[in-house]
Every structure is written in C-alpha cells, then in structure tokens.
Amino acid sequence: MQVSTLSMFLDYKCNFECGHCSVGSSPETEYELDDRYIDKALSEADSLESLQLVVFTGGEVTLHFDKLLDAISQASECGYRTRIVTNAWWAHDIERARETIDRLVDAGLDEINTSYDDFHTDYAPPDNIVNFVEASLESDIEQTSVAMIIGDTNPRYDAEAMVKLLERRLGTHPDAYSDELTVLEDTVSPLGRGAQIDVSELTARNDVDSGCSDVISTISVHPDGTVKACCGHAQWYVPDLTLGSLDEQSLPDIVQRSQENLLYWLVHNVGPQQLLERIGVEGDYSGICHACNDLLGEHREKLLEYIRTNKQQLVHEDLFLSETMQRDAQSLVDHEQQVLERLDRISQAADAD
C-alpha cells in the first residue's frame, strides 16, 4: 500500500453541471487550488519513492489553462508521468482539439482522460469526444481514456455506442489503438448531486466485492490544502478519508501516518463490501465508492467496534496472510525493510489500543 499516484483538484468549478457529479461541481462552484499547495506537494513528493503519476483534475482543469500548463510542466520536470481529467468542452472542432492537446503535450502531458454518457448530453455533443480522441491519437499522448458512466438500465450512450462513433471517424475499430486508447464503463455512484439516483437495478462495472486498490496508493490534494486517502466519490462525505492538511504537516508525514492506520489497510486488502458483510450489513452497491461511503458513514461505529474487538486477528489474517499481500510479493521483496517497519508499527498500535 504505497503511494503511486498524486491527484490534485485545481478547482471544484466546472462549466458543466452534470446530474451525477459527486464533487457537486458547477459554474458557480468556485474553489481554486492555491499555487503554494501545488509547489509544496510536488517539492515534498520527492520523498515518496513509489510515486509515479501526478493527475490534475477538478471540476474542469482546463478553465485555468495557463495554471494547468505550469503545473504539468512542474510535475514533468520532477520526473513524474502526468495526466489530466477533462470534459473536453474545448474539442468542439477538430482544429481546436489538436491545438489544445498540442499545447498540453508541449507542457509535458503523458495521459488524458475524459468521460461522456447520458449525464453529459445537455452540455456537449458526442462529437466533442470524437474530436478529442482523434486529436489525442494523432499527438504524442501515450494513453487516452474515455469513461462512460452508466446510470440507467437502457443508456443511450454506453461503451458500445461510443465505439461505433469512434469507428466511424477513425475508419477502423478502436481496438486497433488498444495500446493507446481505452473506452470503459463504470456505474454511477449515488453521491453528491447524484445522491437521488436509483441504482438498485444497475450492475456494478467494477469488482465491488474486492479490496480497494486506490486507497492510499492514490492520494489527492484539495483546494483547502487537505490531503485525502483516495480520489474516489466518497472522499467528500466521510471524514475518515481525510488524512491531514498541508497547512499543518508535510506530505510525507501525512502519508506515513496513513500507512500506519489499520482501517486503510482493511479497506485496501479486504474491501468495503466484505467489511460490511462482516459486521452484518447486506446491501447492493453500484461500486466500491458507494460501499465505502456506507461503511465509513452510516456504519462507521459498528466497523470501529469490530476492529477494536478483532484487531490482532485482523492484523494477522488480513494483512500478513492476505491474498493481496501475496500478490504484492515482489514489491515486498523490493521494499522489504520499509514495509516490515510499517507493519510492525501497525501491530504495535493495535497492541497499544
């Protein structure tokens, strides 16, 4: 459970106001990340030897285009891969799409992600995404991803529909670009503006019954300087996913403290839904974030009591002997002393409690 990705929310503001947005972004939601937090996070990230990727997201990151270019350049010069997440509003014609992506690549961008689905149709046509993909594939961008968020049993725009649109433009099936392009589906999480969406008839597109690979391995920096334990939908709604503040601690100190927290290890190795089942809670969840929000929200006290009662067994069986730990065997060999020291601190903390 080492940090591999650092995600920065440049602003919660977005020029769209999609009905499923867990951030609650809109044209009126202005909360910009101060440059000092970007500088502090990137300068201190040098101590995180496992960090590989820096992601800039929002809100809509390209609304602060010059700031975004500077941040990409800064992260790239530090030796990290870079990615942005954008709604591609600017790709309304192919030439504008090419120009924008070329400037991003010149700044040092390696990867670019977008999404399009029934929630986005009020704000942009699908042609934006087709322009976005065509321009990206023509450029030096190494990885392009299009996510389709499914919120209905009969969606108009799903992965199949997007593949057909792309095939028509590209003149070949997108599989021909499988090393560079990913089109995927995910199920909506009923959080934030999407809290009222009925997901009872929807099928989870990810493995909701497994551990969360993102917790602590992906951390996020927010406009108020807080650092959160993931970049998922639940992070705004459950206090346990807030690790600390850059105003009060260094990024390495925040990360180290999180890696000594048994709760995060359990979410990572066991997974929210499995933990819910262990404490006697049954439910149908649209994804891991949905289950995590339920676990660390409504059922938090029940979970903490379960951990207090079974902490030694949990450390032994769910950490030391877990399948996740076995899958990460090579990483353990490569970082043996560092990992053993962290696990020893977790065990000592459990004894102290």
TrEMBL record:
GO molecular function, one term: iron-sulfur cluster binding
Signal peptide: none
UniProt entry keywords in alphabetical sequence: Iron, Iron-sulfur, Metal-binding, S-adenosyl-L-methionine
InterPro entries assigned: 4Fe4S-binding_SPASM_dom, Aldolase_TIM, Radical_SAM_PqqE_MftC-like, rSAM, rSAM_sf
Keyword GTP-binding attached: no
Domain Radical SAM core residues, every copy: 1-220
Taxonomic source organism: Natribaculum luteum
SUPFAM superfamilies from the UniProt entry: Radical SAM enzymes (SSF102114)
Protein name, UniProt field: Radical SAM/SPASM domain-containing protein
Taxonomy, superkingdom: Archaea
One of the Pfam families matching this protein, by short name: SPASM
